[in-house]
Amino acid sequence: MDHKKIRVRFAPSPTGPLHMGGVRTALFNYLFAKQQGGDFILRIEDTDQNRYVEGAEAYIIESLKWCGLLPDEGPGIGGAFGPYRQSERKGLYKQYAMQLVENGWAYYAFDTPEEIEKLRKEAEAIKETFSYGIATRDKLNNSLALPKEEIGKRLEAGEDFVIRFKMPEDTDVSEEDLIRGSVTFNTTKSLDDKVLFKSDGMPTYHLANVVDDHLMGITHVIRGEEWLPSMPLHVLLYKALGWEGTKPRFAHLPLILKPVGKGKLSKRDGDKLGFPVFPLEWKDPKTGETSKGYKEEGYFPEAFINLLALLGWNPGTEQEFFSLGELTKTFELNRVVKSGSRFDPEKAKWFNKHYFQQKTASELSALLKEILDEKAIPSNDKTISLVVENIKERCEFAHDLWEQGHYFFQQPSTYDEKTVKKRWKEDTPEKLTLINELFSEVEGWEAGAIKEAFSAFMDEKGWGFGAIMNPLRLSLVGGNMGPDLFLICEILGKEETIKRVQLGIEKIG
Ligand code: GLU
Questions:
Q1: Which residue ranges have their beta carbon within 6 Å of ligand 1?
Q2: What is the CATH code of the structural domain delimited by 1-75+254-358?
Q3: What top-level class would CATH report for the domain 91-197?
Q4: Which residues are catalytic?
Q5: pLDDT digits over 41-63, tens only?
Q6: Does pTM surpass 0.85?
Q7: β-bridge partners, 162
Q8: d(Cα 410, Cα 429) in Å, to the nearest integer?
Q9: How far is the CA of 11 from the centre of ligand 1 (A)?
Q10: Euclidean distance between the first and final Cα of the chain, in Å?
Q11: Whose CA is nearest to atom 3 of ligand 1?
Q12: For the chain, how many helices (H) and strands (E)?
């Protein structure tokens, strides 16, 4: 039995905002580690300088924080295995690439990018794909094909080179994936000689990833399905570097699929159907284009985490609501499915509604207060809590508190035309004037008392309730929405109620 401490890593490349699929990868890593008392590590894989995007790393860190997925080790956090940014580890990769060259597992390749491009084009012209590997390497400019002195000369002259992995011929590489079971790749059929070390002195993803997983004592590599084709190379690298004994276990998570149609969920789906695919709002530093974030759209992190957890994993029971703590207890990697999981934006809202309704009165009041403060609208705690209590049932998001309750804090600036047409009659102003007179006499301004006085007055006049209630509501809130009318009067206060009725009479006419 292996009693090594569980250590997993989330290893994003800072090439843009973190997609919700990336957050799910982080979540599953986090859950797997935490339930076993293990470590969750954040490693920034920034060896590809061409794809580096300003602000992406900070965005990743902020996103994890918002979700409550706090790494035990990582950039800005520290830890015994740092640094956690690959660019800061630059100096330590070359020795491993050289070790592989010396052992015959890798070789120098001097082909220029132009030469490779030419070969690619030539292959394309005859409807083939060029691949640098078993079938072609002997005819190319590398240390396997060139004479020894020639290689020495080129190296001495400081000619640019890359180091490529020498894929062994016709070998079946099999590995047990914790989600997929045994996976086998044949080297000749599906693998080329990947670049491990580049001419700019930086390792590629493959080398840096394996070296760091080894040096950081990673026990389990849990990542997206798109990395499954890299697994055989990584497995061979462990062997070639003599690290087979401590090779991590692999688990490749299923794709998150589009709400409709085929394929992987993309930002375009979100734009088309109006939902975010990123945890936080993202402003592209180059184009200035802003993409929506779950946070800014009013989702609660607990709802976001809950919905992500169920994309690809299920508890095997009917339970759908899970806090992060419950997930940590319940999650099992072997209950993660192989097949892709369809994202449903409506279900995402449904989750949010649940968490909204779970909030305490004071939490919801704080949310509404925040909105009012942002709009510089003065308010008092009593009104806020009355409003929240009476509109919360209709809300899914924090911003619904404003959409459903704005008229408690602002006089209507317009009146819903349809309602006016249907409900506002010629004698309405006259009747409302009398109602206002009645209101001014009501003692103890409270829904029950108002209703009592109102009903008595209606009986006395013999007016139909509808003929007055609808226009009254219209003048108080600007439309036909809202909770009980007398409650609205109470919350608005006597003075404001009378003022609004008067305003309605003047404005609607
Ligand atoms: N840097 C890779 C990424 O951006 C990491 C893949 C892995 O976890 O091995 O997803």
A1: 11-13, 45, 205, 209, 223, 227
A2: 3.40.50.620
A3: alpha beta
A4: 267
A5: 999 999 998 899 999 999 999 99
A6: yes
A7: 109
A8: 22
A9: 5
A10: 84
A11: 12
A12: 21, 13
